[in-house]
Amino acid sequence: MLSRKIFGRRQTLLGLGGLAGIGASVIGTELNKQYKLRQIQRDSQNRNFKVTSNTALGQRAATKGLIYGAAVRQYALSSDTKLAESVVYECKMIVPEWELKWNYLRPTPTSFNFAPADWLADFSRRNGLLFRGHTLVWHEALPIWFPKTINSKNARQLLLEHITTVVKHYAGHIHSWDVVNEAIDPRDRRSDGLKNTPWLQFIGQDYIEIAFSAAAESDPNTLLVYNDYGLQYDTHEHEAKRNAVLKLLENLKSKDIPIHALGIQSHLSGYETRFNPDKFKKFLSEVASLGLKILITEMDVADNKLPSDIKFRDPIVAGVYEDYLSVALEEPAVISVLTWGLSDSYTWLSQNKPRKDQATVRTLPLDTQMRRKLAWNAIARAFDKATKR
Length: 389
Ligand code: XIL
What we know:
The chain has one domain (59-385): TIM Barrel, CATH 3.20.20. 49% of the residues lie in helices and 14% in strands. It is globular. The chain has helices spanning 2-45, 57-63, 74-79, 81-90, 102-105, 115-126, 145-149, 155-170, 198-203, 207-218, 236-254, 277-288, 310-329, 349-352, 374-385, and strands spanning 67-72, 93-96, 130-137, 176-181, 223-228, 261-264, 267-269, 293-302, 334-339. The chain contains 15 helices and 9 strands. Helix 11 links the parallel strand 5 and strand 6 (261-264). The longest helix is centred in the N-terminal third of the chain and has 44 residues, at 2-45. Residues 97, 181, 229, 265, 298, 348 line the site of (3S,4R)-3-hydroxy-2-oxopiperidin-4-yl beta-D-xylopyranoside.
């Protein structure tokens, strides 16, 4: 009885000690975060985001031989006239954020619904904008029938039929296609760096080659792109991803697979400081040396961990835009910049990376009233600094 009591007390004491340890480390992490935030804030506060004119982003980019554009949603573009006006005014290219993904295009295994994407293609034509395709092969945004239907007997045919039908449907009207999206994931620990997806599982590792070849046959004149995220920071994870993506691109080129460009999504964080311009530039030039173009395809800057006061928040976001784009645009192979949305009214980050204080996220060039923000100035400045292609 006595020994049990003592044992019990010792355990409690040990438990309290452990708790105190956890408490100290939580406080330590919190202090580190606050310190980091103060540093980020200080660095961006005194920056000057002045621009020399009001010229729209698309026009500014065009004078340098670059293309600026944004992702759009059909429901928003068709109902919000202020958004539509801003898109036409600022952009030279649009890309459907949702409408060309399998879950939109493929209501059943045997049918296609092109209506929403066709509306956007038509909008681009009416307004003299380029139209970009996203995306033919991805492991996300698949229809509900997909897992129940796909197997190793039908996967190859299903993929070929999808690519052929969709690419032919827009042939002659499309600037570029993200043929394969996010196929690399070194965390899956395969020697080829490929992510374990249904496509890999049911077709095998040549599904990427099959996809590019089918796209090229269906539209020989469009730019065929491999698109991926997690490539920009100086972290082990991003380094591994850069290496694996390079390996994939080298392999495709060595086999003469029709691939023309790398799309770097560029979903950045306003809170991340581990950006190393030299390492990033080296990666870009290695991609370029394979004879590939580069597109910045889905840029935005998450502000979820930043202060709520716009006076502090906006310059941080803008600083990240300008620093990143200035480096990226130094590489002559970079031909275009797209942001993943134009206005803060329509950004996936409101759901994906919401702010704890419930404030509207401010991650894109225009605010919810379609007014230009410092992020707009930052992008404009990067285009102004860029050398002509
Ligand atoms: C996102 C959309 O923005 C969201 O609205 C949707 O719910 C999920 O997909 N990488 C991509 C894009 O290639 O297709 C993703 O778009 C964002 C990450």
